[in-house]
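Below is how a single chain appears once it has passed through the pipeline. First comes the sequence as given, then the structure the pipeline wrote out for it. We keep one example in the README because the format questions we get most often are answered faster by looking than by reading.
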Amino acid sequence: MHKSLGRLDHLDTDFHQSIPVACPIFICRNQQTRAGILPVANQLILSQSYQQSISAAVQNETIRVSNLSNEEFLKLHARPGRIGLSGGLTLIDKAICRAERHLDAGEHWGIWSHAFIFQGTRADGHHWVIESDLQVHHKHIQLGVQENRVTKYHDEKLYANLAILDFGLNDAHIAELLREALEHVATRAKYSVRELFGTLLALRRQELRSRANVMARESSMYCSAFVQHLFRKLNLELAPGIDSKNTTPEDIWRSAIPHTTYLLLREAPQSSLEKLRRRAKARVRLLKRSR
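Resulting structure:
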């Protein structure tokens, strides 16, 4: 199924065509096979009873929204146990999205550069997230698995694109997921920049993706590796056949496991060549209209 709330007038057809065919916007049931994507039957490495409960709870559905601020979007759709994805236009975001082009047959850049877990509303009245991230504040650096208020993602200049993935977890599985996440907060699991380079190498050499990250470290995980690790604790494979420490945010976005996606998409990072291509197409269209 596919629903649309509001309009996406600011996204032209070229942009829609640049979104990978394996992502849930266009293939809601993800029954097709492409490079690096396995058939659904091979991707659901779950206990039979859990698989049935997940499938009964949700179908693959993408709900696109527009004309909302990040704050409004998060208030509407953030719930405990759901996955958050973000994409921005900083140099780091662009570097990650550029590296993810190796996942796409047409080498389009990825959309997502960060992944995290929604924890829920706490005593302070704020919704909190658990994530593995690198944050630099005045005289203070947070490097590793940490808890942050969701207000961090209200900044639309830093986080232009947001998605929330709901895999239909029940209360018991949400509690187990959050327990495992908080264990990593308590033990101060580190954010591994080194492992990011190992993942980049695996992206360029696809045969390495199923193997252990060549630069893996103990008690260290970057953002999407952390999310993949948590879901594997539930015997739920978001990206089957890929080592958890080689998992990218784009892999999570492309997951074929039944889920609902809430999508707030403003602008996707793209290469200079892609920008030139789009400008050329727009100029051709103008010339045709003027005739």
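The first strand starts at residue 2 and ends at 5.

See the next section for the split statistics.
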